[in-house]
Amino acid sequence: MNRLFLLTLCLLTGVQATAQNRTIRGRVVDDGTGKPLVGVSIYVHKTERGVQSGTNGKFAFLAPKDAVTLQASTLPI
Hints:
Layout: H1 2-19, E1 21-27, E2 41-44, E3 50-52, E4 58-64, E5 70-73
Antiparallel strand pairs: 1-4, 2-3, 2-5
C-alpha cells in the first residue's frame, strides 16, 4: 500500500512539474539568404535553459511558462 501511494505521489509531482513548462520550437535562418544556421545557441533570457540549433536550423526545448524573451548567440551556452 505504501509503495502504491509513493508511486502515485511521484507521478502527480511529475505531472505538476511539467505543467509549469512549455515547449519552445523554432528555426534559425540567415536573414539575407534564408539558409538554416547551424549551432546557434537559443536560450531563455537570464537563464541557462536552452539548446543549439541542429543541421536544419531547427530547435526545441522546455522553458518556463512565464519566459518571454529568448536570446540567440553563436557562442556556446
